[in-house]
From TrEMBL, chains B, D:
<dbReference type="Pfam" id="PF12573">
    <property type="entry name" value="OxoDH_E1alpha_N"/>
</dbReference>
<comment type="similarity">
    <text>Belongs to the BCKDHA family.</text>
</comment>
<dbReference type="InterPro" id="IPR001017">
    <property type="entry name" value="DH_E1"/>
</dbReference>
<dbReference type="GO" id="GO:0009083">
    <property type="term" value="P:branched-chain amino acid catabolic process"/>
</dbReference>
<keyword id="KW-0786">Thiamine pyrophosphate</keyword>
<feature type="domain" description="2-oxoisovalerate dehydrogenase E1 alpha subunit N-terminal">
    <location>
        <begin position="10"/>
        <end position="47"/>
    </location>
</feature>
<dbReference type="InterPro" id="IPR029061">
    <property type="entry name" value="THDP-binding"/>
</dbReference>
<feature type="region of interest" description="Disordered">
    <location>
        <begin position="1"/>
        <end position="44"/>
    </location>
</feature>
<dbReference type="Pfam" id="PF00676">
    <property type="entry name" value="E1_dh"/>
</dbReference>
<comment type="function">
    <text>The branched-chain alpha-keto dehydrogenase complex catalyzes the overall conversion of alpha-keto acids to acyl-CoA and CO(2). It contains multiple copies of three enzymatic components: branched-chain alpha-keto acid decarboxylase (E1), lipoamide acyltransferase (E2) and lipoamide dehydrogenase (E3).</text>
</comment>
<dbReference type="InterPro" id="IPR022593">
    <property type="entry name" value="Oxoisoval_DH_suAlpha_N_dom"/>
</dbReference>
<dbReference type="InterPro" id="IPR050771">
    <property type="entry name" value="Alpha-ketoacid_DH_E1_comp"/>
</dbReference>
<feature type="domain" description="Dehydrogenase E1 component">
    <location>
        <begin position="86"/>
        <end position="379"/>
    </location>
</feature>
<feature type="compositionally biased region" description="Low complexity">
    <location>
        <begin position="35"/>
        <end position="44"/>
    </location>
</feature>
<feature type="compositionally biased region" description="Basic and acidic residues">
    <location>
        <begin position="7"/>
        <end position="20"/>
    </location>
</feature>
<protein>
    <recommendedName>
        <fullName>2-oxoisovalerate dehydrogenase subunit alpha</fullName>
        <ecNumber>1.2.4.4</ecNumber>
    </recommendedName>
</protein>
<keyword id="KW-0560">Oxidoreductase</keyword>
Length: 338, 414, 338, 414
């Protein structure tokens, strides 16, 4: 079994699917000859030809619009939006069209597409290369939303997303492309190769959408997180010496309520962590779900640790990023209450 | 530099205004109409650089006497012409009755295409039956020309239990996969790049089917127009992109969409795409232009944009009263006439039709609408035969996820 | 004092502001000569001329893009997006530009614009004339979000929004334009004229953004709502015979946390009601806020009554609309717990 | 109908490819270059219908010998030419040093405009100082031509305590209200309709100032381009909309943006707007075209689009390595040469400049950059002199709302 980083795992998912299914096509800005600014589609054009892997004009709305038409024809487009910050020009096509097509046509037409897009900060990208807009999409009925935290999941989830007959917005935390990152930006970089999830099978496998993963079982407090924050939360639990149960949601919509509910009912405490801005973020929905399902079991207020409600600032990136110190503090607050 | 010497001029904002408003007499100004037959017909594989005058002319076939003139005149069998006439007349009769049905409270909303029947009908007929159509809400004629039962359309309008869209969509937002008619969106313009994507897919799969799409003059300002034009030219997609310039977008005349400084067909040459400008009330011209564009697309010569120059004779929708913003007799003064009357005149001039036959056909289509209408009403009108409430949660996703199952149960009180 | 319906009150707000401030301009699709498809801008072009009130091309992105440029020049554009369902094509300009301009230029440039847009269902508009997308905007830092529930507030809030130096998305519940609506769609229509809030002063007054209004003081349970739902909640409390404290939030961002907190701490119970889809909606944020601020005072789980997570269906509109029956049931559930 | 007889052709997707890729020799194909002086200069108030050939030519003033030829040659005082030369040279020296600074870890990111200096510098100079500029990230020359201190620019690049943008923006995303330079956005194209809006506002207020904006060839595909073009023509906004066609958009050649089937300038005629296509490496041509468009705008004749035909000689940014997608010697083969060398040649040919003076000027601008660079580094480089963390919460809104105050307190541990 080869060792893959997240980029290679995602590339492998597309490779496997293009091999198995002629209808899978890949396109987006710079994804063709060059293989994408993060190299996630590298080699695919050479292998599958220009009519299945190609560059597009810089028009995210056009990418989505044409992808929907291709989906209606019977293809399975996997498109890249170069940064999640640039998905907004495609918003109408995603929300009013991709998400609504099956419903409004009562099942006559649908758009089985995947929008891959790098999200999150920690690379000094400033406010337009760092956003985590997943909370905007989880509010849109008809879209599925996914965010993996490691190479193994990334491949399995991307394959499941491509095989899914509904539109999926697939967020790739760019800070994780080349290695796990626990928020200690001042420590040496780690590579995926020494992480167990880099053992990625070459062939086809899927991780069912809608299923969370308990990445650290524990008894004291439930931590709900996804993407880069999974690694931050693992580090924080360790540093705080708290026996936290850390749940990597993986799919945000549909979310795995049963796993969340079972855990919080057991621990009685819950900390929610995401990198996106707080107000109206996906953490708010998680908080609402937890209090609706586990009200009588909660022993302490649910905590949210999130990005601040400001744009992602270039120089003060590490003041913005919800790192292990803030998560540790929240875990302690959650545990303080008797 | 002289500009530094002169006292600078004050800048002024120009806001386009139509030639006439309510209370004044109708005026279409110096509308430039090429005479019928005046525009030469280039070969369908002509280089775009040879076609740059086309957007500034107006392709017309039928002259004032109903004769077909010039190179664009298509040699159509009588059968085709009569089928076109019938489809246009049926479309108009259907519109009349459904407008009345809305006024009678049988449905919430309706939109007519009166005066624009030639666009959808002639274009549907000039395409192959398996070419894919991405319409706006004003091309009901496509369905009718493809012989889709008007009863089925009525059931959609009434959101009754036989509505194939399960009462979900606003009336007129049809979807008919069986005849290649794509689901209509309420969001203007979105279908334009989708049609391009469908056509690209057809090319990727080395299929032979092409796509066509329709938007209004007003909608050309939306970003989807630009995306469709760009992607279509870049990938030479086999698609026909139609702009139905019916002079109005609700209360805004076409100048507000940019029709004052250029024709809509001229947009096409900016991308290096042929742009045809066609008399949209001339069945033969519309047919011929569509045929030309289809041939071009089918032979891998890429996309064409067609501006169909016509007039929205009816209100925008049942929610609209055009007397508030345009002279009420404007439709009557539209210089390009009525598409049904013009085709009728041509058929009579050609000796294959008569006033009597026309009157009989008129009665026939009205009866057809009446019969279907009664049947639709028997099944149910809005609110009288609602779909099963539990269907409300279906088709959001292919399979019902847990949270929607729970909401459904909550609604049903389970 | 004349009696005004909501349309007249909104019209009066613009009229008053155009009179006072030359820099106020009004534009959008059909707003000029015709006065808007809901007649909210009727008469303004005639009064203030074509260069201050004008029709635009159908391009919501262009409307917002040009409005931002005008704002940077020094004007105060008040633009109309014909239906909230059509705001998505303007999403990038709103989110990446209007909301971010002041921050990214460190205060050098800003866009003091108001986007007025009719929202909500109950008029058989189907899925693209009924949406309530406020929850997408409350997640965007840099935007203020407002939704009035009556003529008096509508005018005062719109004046405050126009005078505000930040971009404001101003949602107008279209079902309330001509009269209050409590969700009893089968009863005769009511007009505003018999409602106290239709006593609207002709001149200038403002209702500060960020301040909620307690429309019905009560002791048993706090109801958080806004827009059309205010009237539904009032009816439901009455019908349930429950002494609910009903808070009309009016401004969603920034939200009046203090009023919410004080009320819930007193009642110990909370029901949140909105017409938008549930998952990730603004109600989730309210739920999170309430449980963070009032955890120790809560005697029952916070309830959310919302639109279902589906598009707004045409024929089944009343099954979709969260009417008084559903609110009543939630109030009872909240009260059941001892 | 004949099409029914023929066996239908299989459709094919066309995907544009540049003439050459790494490993092959550079090839610009049959690039159509009008000779210098060949294109006539119409009056600035000429009707658009008389200008429809312009987008298909290339306005050039400087010939191969450095002589200014033809009607477009502007009569510029020596002082102006020398100021332009200096600004271009300073821009290039600045770029060189900041690129190195990024490599040395003094900042996170940088973008050069090498080879495109004439665009920003000549255009800034052809406009009035109070005209408003809405740039993309590759017009640092605008600031330099408007004499904005490069030290201030460096502090932005270093996000240090003297950064006027408080360390918030990615390097190169300047904002300088004092010299009418609008805040640069990371989202491509958004400034184009904003410039139109600003110009509309200027017209609404009967002001005399006009606006100008810049986007790249790749960015023309974005919806903002279409919105800007539409609104500008509809309201005849006093604005100049520039498309800098530097042949590349990161790794995509201009054919992917639709440059294969039409020039970008041709887009303009589709809207009824004049479209000038200009040799972007010819300082005099750029100056003249801009002056023409500005005169047109100032006299209420509306907007102009200018395509500046040039070549991105440098990598897209410090994150990019163009050797992965284009021949590494492509810049050297660019047929329109280097804008600095071409102006230098003209000045020498005109007898007002010499190699010695040029070398001295080169040293002077390098010294200027060095001095400013040292000062900027003294103030701080990325991470060494961060702004006060509490500033992170300022300017989201004009006033700090409660929830942000609470978050700030939480961050500061208060
Ligand atoms: C994105 C969007 N914006 C606005 C509307 C509201 N609207 C519906 S129809 C219409 C006018 C369209 O005019 P045109 O494109 O000329 O088509 P026509 O009605 O004349 O056929 C408008 C503004 C909409 N449906 N979608
Ligand atoms: C909306 C959006 N999409 C994508 C990007 C990523 N991106 C940054 S620069 C660039 C290429 C732009 O090319 P062009 O417009 O030709 O300008 P140039 O860099 O050549 O000056 C891309 C795709 C972005 N910044 N914004
Ligand atoms: Mg129209
Ligand atoms: Mg470029």
């Amino acid at each position: 079994m080869p060792t893959m980083n997240m980029i290679q795992a995602l590339n492998s998912a597309m490779d496997v699917m293009m091999q198995r299914d002629d209808n899978v096509v890949v396109f987006g800005e710079d994804v063709g000859y060059f293989g994408g600014v993060f190299r996630v589609t590298a080699g695919l054009q050479k292998k599958y030809g220009q009519t299945r892997v190609f560059d597009t004009p810089i028009a995210e709305g056009g990418i989505l619009g044409t992808a929907i038409g291709m989906g209606a024809y019977g293809l399975r487009p996997v498109v890249e939006v170069q940064f999640a910050d640039y998905i907004y020009p495609a918003f109408d096509q995603l929300v009013s069209e991709a998400a609504r097509l099956r419903y409004r046509s009562a099942g006559e037409f649908w758009a089985p597409l995947v929008v891959r897009t790098p999200c999150g900060g920690g690379i000094f990208g400033g406010q337009t290369h760092s956003q985590s807009p997943e909370g905007i999409f989880t509010h849109v009925c008809g879209l599925k939303t996914v965010m993996p935290s490691n190479p193994y999941d990334a491949k399995g989830l991307l394959i499941a997303a491509i095989e899914d007959d509904d539109p999926v917005v697939f967020f790739e935390p760019k800070r994780l492309y080349n290695g796990p990152f626990d928020g200690h930006h001042d420590r040496p970089l780690k590579a995926w190769s020494s992480h167990p999830t880099s053992d990625v099978p070459e062939g086809h496998y899927r991780i069912e959408l809608g299923k969370a993963s308990i990445v650290r079982p524990g008894n004291d407090v439930t931590v709900l997180c996804y993407g880069t924050m999974v690694h931050v939360c693992l580090a924080a639990a360790e540093e705080a010496g708290i026996d936290a149960e850390i749940i990597d949601l993986r799919t945000l919509l549909p979310v795995d309520v049963d796993t969340i509910e079972a855990s919080v009912k057991r621990t009685g405490r819950c900390v929610i962590v995401h990198e996106a801005t707080r107000t109206g973020g996906y953490g708010a929905e998680l908080s609402a779900i937890v209090q609706e399902h586990c009200f009588w079991h909660l022993q302490a207020p649910i905590e949210r640790v999130t990005g601040w409600d400001t744009p992602y600032p270039h120089a003060l990136e590490w003041e913005y990023f919800p790192g292990p110190a803030r998560v540790t503090a929240a875990l302690k607050r959650a545990m303080e209450v008797a | 530099m002289s500009k530094k010497m002169k006292k600078p001029e004050s800048l002024r904002l120009h806001v386009p205004e139509p030639k006439s408003r309510p209370g004044h007499s109708s005026d279409f100004g110096e509308m430039h109409l090429s005479p019928a037959g005046a525009i030469p017909r280039p070969a369908a594989d002509a280089a775009e650089s040879k076609l740059r005058e086309l957007p500034y002319g107006l392709i017309r076939v039928l002259d004032d006497a109903g004769q077909a003139c010039g190179e664009w005149a298509p040699a159509l069998p009588t059968e085709t012409l009569l089928k076109g006439l019938r489809a246009m007349m049926l479309t108009r009769a259907f519109d009349e009755r459904m407008m009345r049905a809305q006024r009678q409270g049988k449905t919430s909303f309706y939109m007519k295409c009166t005066g624009e029947e030639a666009v959808a009908v002639a274009q549907a007929m000039a395409l192959h039956p398996d070419d894919m159509l991405f319409p706006s809400y004003r091309q009901q004629g496509l369905l009718i020309a493809r012989d889709w039962p008007i009863l089925d359309m009525m059931c959609q309008l009434y959101s009754n239990s036989a509505d194939r869209l399960k009462g979900r969509q606003l009336p007129v937002m049809y979807s008919v996969r069986e005849v290649g008619f794509f689901s209509i969106s309420g969001n203007l313009g979105t279908q334009f790049p989708q049609a391009v994507g469908w056509a690209m897919a057809s090319a990727i799969k080395n299929d032979t089917r092409i796509a066509a799409s329709w938007i209004g003059d007003g909608t050309t300002a939306e970003s989807d127009f630009h995306h469709a034009m760009t992607f279509a030219t870049v990938y030479r997609a086999p698609v026909i992109l139609n702009v139905v310039n019916n002079q109005w977008a609700i209360s805004s005349f076409q100048g507000i969409a940019g029709g004052e400084s250029a024709t809509f067909a001229a947009r096409a040459i900016g991308y290096g795409m042929p742009g045809l400008r066609v008399d949209g009330n001339d069945f033969l011209a519309v047919y011929a232009a569509t045929q030309w564009a289809a041939e071009r697309a089918r032979t891998n010569h890429g996309p064409t944009m067609i501006e169909l120059y016509t007039y929205r004779a009816a209100p925008h929708s049942t929610s609209d009263d055009p007397n508030a913003y345009r002279p009420s007799d404007e439709a009557a003064h539209w210089p390009l006439g009525d598409p049904i009357l013009r085709l009728k005149q041509h058929l009579i001039a050609s000796g294959i039709w008569s006033d009597e036959q026309h009157a009989a056909l008129q009665k026939e289509v009205e009866d057809q609408v009446k019969v279907a209408g009664r049947e639709a009403e028997r099944i149910g009108t809005l609110g009288s035969a609602n779909p099963d409430p539990s269907t409300l949660f279906e088709d959001v996703f292919k399979d019902l996820p847990v949270h929607l199952r729970r909401q459904r149960d909550e609604m049903l009180g389970a």
